[in-house]
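Researcher: I'm preparing a figure for a lab meeting and need a structural model of a single chain. I don't have an experimental structure, so a prediction will have to do for now. The sequence is pasted below. Please return the structure as tokens so I can convert it later.
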Amino acid sequence: MSAGTNSDAPIGASRPPTPAGPPAPAGRRGPAAPSPTAARAARPRRRLPGAATLARLALLTVGIVVAVLPFVWMLRTAIGPSQTALALDSNPIPSRVQFHSFDQAWHAGDLGPALLTGIAVSLAILALQLATAVPAAYAFACLRFRGRTALFAVVLVTLLVPAQVTAVPNYVTISALGFADTRVGLVLPFMTHAGMIFMLRQYMSTIPASVLDAARMDGLGTWRTLRSIIVPLAAPAIASVSVFSFLLSYNEYLWPLLVARSPGIATPPLALARLMTDSSAIIPDFAELAAAALIISLPSLAVFVVAQRRLAAGITGTGAGA
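Model: Understood. Here is the structure written out token by token.
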């Protein structure tokens, strides 16, 4: 044999790699995939909710039912037959649905002017409170001056005084100024609110001092810093207190009862009370009263639905420094 044949090569010498064979037939599969049972066993099992989670869900459900049930029953009374709300066998679903109670309540209670008066008075109060509370909160939170802590303590003390205590002095003052039985008299005693000052001050206190230092270095004065820096940063808190202010003013009953003697300037709660007391029947029409209550609650619901995101951000947020 010649020396170039494979038989003359040493036994331990490496052989050239064998060429790859033809591809496997199409019917032949690779490694077997795991079975569905094995795959399910490999997945982490979901933990069942614990006792604490179930307790929280139960409390949340009870709270939702308690909060929503009066409104649902008011709607059921408004669209159901009259006086069925007093029946011992009242069902959540009325025997028949009718809507004439809304028309009766609208005309009998004169709810159109009452809604306009309530919305106008509430917006005027809101504008005045923002005009006074925002600068006051800015001064307490961001400015340094002598007596700041003592003045803020006085503001907090006024929160402890019930509104019933100041109703008589306010009425005497408004009457002496000649604003009794006017829309101006409904607005003036609520030009500012200590609770709004407190909430805005707490929110503005979380704004970093570096932001204010940068504004001063840029040449911004006190009022321009408030308008250009503080107000945009505190927008969620301002929106939250605005919603609270509108709802409190719109639902106010005691002060309009003292001041608004003419039916033409009655606010929605006062119009609803007069609708109930002016009825000549021994038992008032509860379907009509429920319809009137539903009508006057629509502006409050609309404000809450529109501003609910801002309201949640203002309650849970902590300012620019969060």
